[in-house]
Amino acid sequence: MAYHVPALLEESISGLNIRPSGIYVDVTFGGGGHSGEILKHLTTGQLIAFDQDEDAERNIFSDSRFTFLNQNFRFLKNNLKFNGITSVDGIFADLGVSFHQFDEPVRGFTFRHDAPLDMRMNINSQQKASDLLASLNETELADLFYEYGELTNSRKIAKAVVNARMQQPLRTVNDLDKVIRKLIPFGQEHKFFAKVFQALRIAVNREIDCLKEMLEQALEILNPGGRLVVITYHSLEDRVVKNFMRTGNFEGEGEKDFYGNPVTPFRQINRKVIIPAEKEISLNNRARSARLRIAEKI
To answer: Which of 21, 129, 162, 265 has its CA 20 to 30 A from that of 112?
Structure first.
């Protein structure tokens, strides 16, 4: 199994509108699929890649134009500054969990295998999914499952978790499965577990907060005419990206000038979100939920 098959590869590279001498950032290096393609379009340019998962280091390139930083992209601006870079021509983000992370049972990202409830993208961080299940109160757990998993029966899930952990800790996928299986809506087993695990993963890694921090910094460091290219995989992160690209804020409430014209820091390159073609989905089923948005800094 490949470490990660890059989704919407041609569309992403086209969206970056790469200048051969420009400076570009891939904030989600992973298996290096998108980064490798970016490098093909550079001559004297530079590519800086971020990934907080130290396993991604096995995929780095030996290339004088390439720099890898084992860092969370929420520290984008400071890390670039430390490496002598204050502005860039394009920023790319593929927010999906890699094949490698899903297919390594010990990482605990999937409900398909029994494994410790870990879900940390940075394996050196302290908090695991099992820690959240053990420490959050019933209201906090209900809010987590509702906000990050969009689960309508979030309160019942939270109550079941709290009742079960009074008997014994929920440390593994099977432990959690036994507790919440009875709450699965009819015919929705896969969707239900996907939402539960999504909610826990987002909370463990503070994904929405980190995404917002990265986007704000991206706006600061992009040169005028520079492109922001982002692939999302669920509605929560897609809404954040869409609002930010359209209005420069996360609420989606755009300002207007004296004449009533919208004031925005970006020009939308694709007003309609780009999704994978059927051919790509047939070759890479995990790309089916990918959504690509592209904006250019004005």
So the answer is: 162
| Distance between CA atoms of residues 242 and 236, nearest Å | 10
Residue that is written with structure tokens 């920023």 in the block? 91
- And the tokens for 276? 């994978």
Per the structure block, which two tokens stand in for 289?
């939920």
CA distance 177 to 162: 14
Contacts for 119-123 with beta carbons within 8 Å, 24 or more apart? 119/197, 119/200, 119/201, 119/204, 119/205, 120/204, 120/205, 121/52, 121/53, 121/97, 121/205, 122/52, 122/53, 122/54, 122/72, 122/205, 123/53, 123/54, 123/55
Instruction: Express the helix, strand and coil content of the chain in percent, nearest 5 each.
Output: 45, 15, 40
196: tokens are 């539960």
The DSSP 8-state label assigned to residue 113 in this structure reads S
C-alpha dihedral over 190, 119, 242, 87, to 10 degrees?
-150
CA–CA gap between residue 198 and residue 298 (Å, rounded): 34
- Cα(198)–Cα(186) distance, integer angstroms: 20
Question: What's at 266, amino acid-wise?
Answer: F
pLDDT score for 199: 97
Query: What count of other Cβ atoms lies within 10 Å of the Cβ of residue 167?
Result: 8
> Is beta strand 222-232 parallel, antiparallel or unpaired with respect to 291-297?
antiparallel
Question: For the chain, which ranges sit under pLDDT 50?
Answer: 1
Q: Which domains does the chain have, with CATH numbers?
A: 9-99+208-297 (3.40.50.150), 110-205 (1.10.150.170)
Residues contacting 282, CB < 8 A, separation 6+: none
Q: Report the C-alpha gap between 121 and 11 in whole angstroms.
A: 26
